[in-house]
Amino acid sequence: MKGEQNKQNKKGFTLAELLIVVAIIAVLVAISIPIFTAQIRKARLAANKANARAALSAAMAEFIDAPEKDKELTIKVNTQHMYFRYDTATGHCKYLETKNTSPQDVDDFHYNNFANIGYEPGGNGLGLSNVAEWKENQEAKLMNGSFSSTVLTDRTYRYWDVAMQGDGTFTALVCLW
Q1: Which of 2, 32, 142, 175 could be disulfide-bonded to 157 (CB atoms 3.0-4.6 Å)?
Q2: pTM of the predicted protein model
Q3: Whole-angstrom Cα distance, residue 55 to residue 29?
Q4: Euclidean distance between CA atoms 172 and 150, whole angstroms
Q5: Domain ranges of the chain
């Protein structure tokens, strides 16, 4: 009889053993979540850097085929910009139009918001030539009417608008979502 009771008591785990296992798992999860989050932010930043470089290169290639009259207009009127939109999903870039406007008014394109990532030298943005220097948690000027800010690593942006002057200089890089 005593041997039978001993067998019955050894069939499962004690409450203390289960609590220890749960505590160990909780500690491991608590350690891994911040590491995982940081890796996601780094991956988003790397994707945004690559997409920004691709958008700038594609816009320059499209600029070559853009109408000469539009190029001349932006040279004569400094407030006019030539807008190009790059779609990261398809890899296509297209010339939209020449306007004296913000990106949200170009091409009747519908999106939730946009952020000015780069401006001409001396502007408030990160600077177009500094794509390699973009950092995690770096702010981008969010343009939603309230002029609050967003961070480059908050999301991976699908659409990138590039504004250029007729002489081929970039004036703005805008990401849309």
Answers
A1: 175
A2: 0.72
A3: 38
A4: 17
A5: 39-176
What span, in angstroms and rounded, lies between the C-alpha atoms of 135 and 139? 9
What is the side-by-side order of every strand in the sheet holding 139-143? 92-99, 81-87, 159-164, 170-176, 114-119, 139-143, 149-151
What DSSP assignment string belongs to 116-157? Answer: EEEESTTSSS--GGGGGG--TT-EEEEESSS--EEETTS---
Q: Using one digit for the tens of pLDDT, what is the confidence trace for 82-106?
A: 888 899 999 999 888 887 766 555 6
Tens-level pLDDT at each residue, the chain (177 residues): 555 555 555 678 899 999 999 999 999 999 999 999 989 988 988 888 898 889 988 999 999 888 888 888 887 777 788 888 899 999 999 888 887 766 555 666 666 666 667 655 555 445 555 677 777 776 666 554 444 566 777 778 888 888 888 887 777 777 776
